């Protein structure tokens, strides 16, 4: 495979994955200088879903959930997302790793 074909195939795969992620149920989390909102939300069990994270603060933030095996570092003013794969019912804690007191829970039902 030539380098050009490699980049075309890679770009198509990235675009396909991005388009698929936009069709998922989406939950929004905002982190702002040591505060996180919402502190609790419900998501469907056994289905993929997307968590859109916005850092509305003036300092860096890191969305992290050890149980969900997700982390995302965000600069001030940045919005990004993580996709959570099929998850068993239960409660999963998330927090801002730069401000560990800022915590929330995803309740998967």
Characteristic terms for this protein:
109 residues, alpha+beta
In words, what does this structure look like?
- This protein is an alpha+beta fold and 109 residues long.
- It is built from 1 helix and 9 strands, in the order H-E-E-E-E-E-E-E-E-E.
- It has one helix spanning 3-22, and strands at 26-32, 35-37, 40-43, 49-55, 61-65, 70-74, 79-84, 90-96, 99-108.
- It has a 5-stranded mixed β-sheet, with no helix packed on it.
- The radius of gyration is 16 Å and the shape is globular.
- The mean pLDDT is 87.
**Biggest β-sheet: strands ordered side by side in the sheet:** 3-9-8-5-6
Number of strands: 9
- Gyration radius (Cα, Å) is 16 Å
Average pLDDT number = 87
Distance between the termini: 45 Å
Beta-strand content bin: over 45%
The SSE order reads HEEEEEEEEE
Question: Helical content, roughly?
Answer: 10-25%
Distinct helical segment count: 1
Q: Which residues form runs of ≥5 with pLDDT under 50? A: none
Structural class: alpha+beta
Largest sheet, if any?
5 strands, mixed
Anisotropy-based shape: globular
């Amino acid at each position: 495979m030539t380098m050009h074909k490699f980049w075309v195939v890679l770009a198509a795969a990235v675009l396909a994955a991005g388009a698929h992620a936009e069709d998922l149920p989406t939950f929004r989390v905002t982190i702002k200088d040591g505060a996180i909102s919402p502190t609790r939300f419900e998501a469907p069990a056994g289905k993929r879903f997307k968590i859109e994270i916005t850092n509305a603060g003036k300092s860096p933030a890191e969305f992290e959930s050890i149980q969900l095996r997700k982390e995302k570092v965000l600069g001030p003013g940045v919005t990004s997302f993580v996709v959570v794969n099929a998850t068993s019912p239960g409660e999963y804690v998330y927090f801002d790793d730069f401000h560990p007191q800022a915590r929330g829970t995803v309740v998967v039902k």
